[in-house]
Amino acid sequence: MFAAPSDREALRFGEKSLTYAELHRAAGTLAERLRGHTRVAVWATSTLETCVSVVAGLLAGVAIVPLNPKIGERELEHILGDSQPDLVLRDEPIVFGTPGEFPDPGPETPALIIYTSGTTGPPKGVVLPRRALTSNIDSLAAAWQWTADDVLVHGLPLFHVHGLGIGILGVLRLGGSVRHVKFSPAAVGQELATGATMMFGVPTMYHRIAEAVEQDPALADQFRRARLLVSGSAALPASDHERIAKATGQGIVERYGMSETLMNVSVRFDGDRRPGAVGLPVDGVDVQVVDEQGRDVGIGAIGEIEVRGPNLFLEYLNRPDATEKAFRDGWFRTGDMAVRDPDGYLRIVGRRATDLIKSGGYKIGAGEIENALLEHPAVAEVAVTGEPDDDLGERIVAWVVPAGEAPEPSVLSDHVAKLLSPHKRPRVVRYLEALPRNEMGKVLKRELS
Ligand code: ATP
Ligand code: MG
C-alpha cells in the first residue's frame, strides 16, 4: 500500500516533515495500538499527525473514519452514531517506537469510511476497500504520468477522497512528496517555484488562481513551471480554464470522481485539455452514459453516468436500501449526467437531482448555462436551478453574484439566448452577494430557493 522506508521526504506540513523511514516507524508505532480494533475515527485536522494516524490505521488493517474538524454538533453526532468507532484520535503525538510486522489484511478489507460532502442530503458513509484505493491510484498514476519524482502541493481538506484518498495516500503509495500549504495562489506559487511539480485543487481555488495570475506576471511564471495542475470535486468553469491557460500556458487537467468511486474519468497527461470536459475513463474503469432504462444514449445526448470497476466502494454504511438502489445490473448509478463528445470525452452536465432542468419539453443542463453566463463580464459567480412553472414544467433560474453593478436581468437572459439557444434563456435572474458553498467550494443548490 505504501512506498518502502527511505530517506526521501514523504510529508511536509509547515516546519514539520517526515521521511518515508520516519513515517513507517511513526505509523507503525501507532498501528501497534490499533491492532485488534475495527474502526477508528480520526479528527482530520490539516496536520502531519492526521496523516500518520491514517497510515497507522491502514497498516493495522482498521477502517479509518476521517472527521471534518469544523463539523457541527448535529453532523458529528450523526457520523459517530452511524460509524460507531472503537476509538477517536485527535492530533495523536508522533512517537518513533519499534513496530512489529503487520500482515496484509487483504484487498476487500475496508480502508476508509468517507462521509460524502452532503451536497444533496445528509452525508452517507461510503465504505472503501483497500483495492479501490490501490487500483485507482495506479490508474491515475498511468493517466497523469505521476511518479515518485513528483512533489504535490496540497491545500485540500483531509476528510474527503480528493485530498486524503488521492492526494495524501496517492503520493505515499507512489513514493513522492507532499508539501501541505494553507491555500492561497501565492503559497502554491511559492512551492511551485521551489521544486513542487503538481497541484490538486477544486474549482474555487482555480478561480482565485485565475484572478491572481492575470494581475501578477511573476506569479504566472511560477505556475508556468508546474508539471501538472489537476481540478476536480465540482465543474471547473470553462472561463477559469481559459484564463489560466492564457496567463500561464498551463491547461488544467480535469477529472471527475466521487466518494463512492474515487476518480472515474480524467483527461490524460498527454491528452487534449479541453475546457468543460473531463476526458476519458481511467484504466480499468468502465463508464457508460445511459437513459432511464439503462440504454446507451449515444454521442451528444444527455444521460446518466454509470460506472463499473475495481475502484467502487463496498456499500453505504448501515444503508443496505441506499446501496441496493445505487446499483443496476452491476453498474453503479452515479446520479450525475453527462454528454459524450464524438471522441468519447465526457462533459459533466451536473447532478440528475439538481442540475437537469426539464423546461418546455427540453432537457437542459445547468452547467452549460452557468458557463455561458460566466462569459458575461457582469457575472462573477453563478448557479442555475429549475423552479416549478405552470407553463414550462420548470423555468430556468439564474442566481448571480455580480462582478460590479448588477445589469438588468434581460441583459443576461438575452446573452444566454444569443450564445446557446432561446429555450435555454433564464426566465428569472436573482442577485446574491455570495453563493452558499460547502468546504470543498461546492455550491449547495438545495439552499437556493
Ligand atoms: P452528497 O453525495 O452527500 O450529496 P457529494 O456528491 O457532493 O455529496 P462527493 O462524493 O464528495 O459528495 O462529490 C462527488 C460529486 O462531485 C460527483 O457526484 C459530482 O456531482 C461532483 N463532481 C466531482 N468532480 C466533478 C467534475 N470534474 N465536474 C463536475 N462535477 C464533479
Ligand atoms: Mg454524491
TrEMBL record:
Pfam families: AMP-binding, AMP-binding_C. InterPro entries: AMP-bd_C (IPR025110), AMP-bd_C_sf (IPR045851), AMP-binding_CS (IPR020845), AMP-dep_synth/lig_dom (IPR000873), ANL_N_sf (IPR042099). This is Fatty-acyl-CoA synthase. Belongs to the ATP-dependent AMP-binding enzyme family. Residues 5-317 form the AMP-dependent synthetase/ligase domain. It comes from the Bacteria. Residues 368-442 form the AMP-binding enzyme C-terminal domain.
